[in-house]
Amino acid sequence: MHHLYADMMNLYGDRGNVISIKKRAEWRGIPVDVVDVKLGDSIRPTGRDIFLFGGGQDREQTLLAEDLSGEKGRDLRSLSEDGAVILGVCGGYQLMGHHYETADGEKIPGVGIFDLHTEPRKPDEPRLIGNVLVSVELDGSKREIVGFENHGGRTRLGGSRPLGRVVAGFGNNGDDGTEGAHELNTFGTYLHGSLLPKNPWLTDHLLQTALRRADDAFTLEPLDDATEKRAFASVAERVRRN
Predict the structure, then answer these.
(1) Is residue 3 within 8 Å of residue 52, measured between CB atoms?
(2) 87-132: per-residue pLDDT in tens?
(3) Residue 214 CB: number of other CB atoms within 10 A?
(4) Which class in CATH covers the domain with range 2-241?
(5) CA distances in angstroms from 137 to 24, 89, 225, listed in the order given
């Protein structure tokens, strides 16, 4: 598992996504190596990887844009097109589009995995903050995910499809009802909190998808998630009511 810019992009506990995947794999006897990919480091995929890209602020995103402008960005695009499992959260998600525009009008170029761009909020617009409940459809099944968002930027989708539809909260921009983006096995979202510990079924989806790249018949053994399911149901209902 590759944790991209772990030392710079880790707002709101996004490292919890790494921990969630690692633990749910190890509970099934599946070893996981975590590689922290820093500025200047190249990406060395094994064929069964998960790439995690957390959130950061304008300063960090500006520093990363140059690092992603060359071979590393090309590698990530190629991996996405080849079906690799990639999850970008907030700032990482924004950098997976064409560009992110700062409040000062600077356009920070992205990797271009998703057909989207992010605009700054207008002076009279608030930050989009709060708990979120999103309806998603993966592998033909409709499910829900919960998380926490805190972003000023408004992301506008072009040809990329959304990860899901907002049930409660703001999502990509607060007005079109979309949240995140999804292409092949690449996912982008604004949900922090951390996302994966709150949504163990999604953790398993990413893990199983990555392992099926080496063995397309691979199926994860089920875990006893009774406690996790009760916790999710409680949080989801509270967010839905609010």
Answers:
(1) yes
(2) 999 999 999 999 999 888 889 999 999 999 999 999 999 999 999 9
(3) 10
(4) alpha beta
(5) 22, 18, 21
At 7-18, the pLDDT tens digits run 887 766 788 999
Q: What is the phi/psi pair of residue 101, to 5°?
A: -95, 130
Separation CA 201–CA 203 (nearest Å) = 5
Residue 2 in tokens: 């590759």
Distance CA 130, CA 148 (A): 6
Tokens of 237: 């209902």
Strands 186-189 and 107-109: unpaired
Catalytic residue among 90, 117, 151, 182: 90
Q: What sections of 27-98 are H helices per DSSP?
A: 58-68, 71-81, 91-94
What is the maximum span of the chain, computed from C-alpha positions, in angstroms? Answer: 52
20 phi and psi angles, rounded to 5 deg: -60, -50
Annotated catalytic residue within 117, 182, 192, 205 = 192
Contact 155, 171 (CB under 8 A): no
Using the Cα atoms of residue 134, residue 110, residue 161 and residue 123 in order, give the sign of their dihedral.
Answer: positive
Whole-angstrom Cα distance, residue 114 to residue 77?
9
The answer to whether 192 is a known catalytic residue is: yes
Taking the model in full, what pTM does it have?
Answer: 0.95
Among this protein's residues, is 117 annotated catalytic? no
Residue found under tokens 């909190």: 193
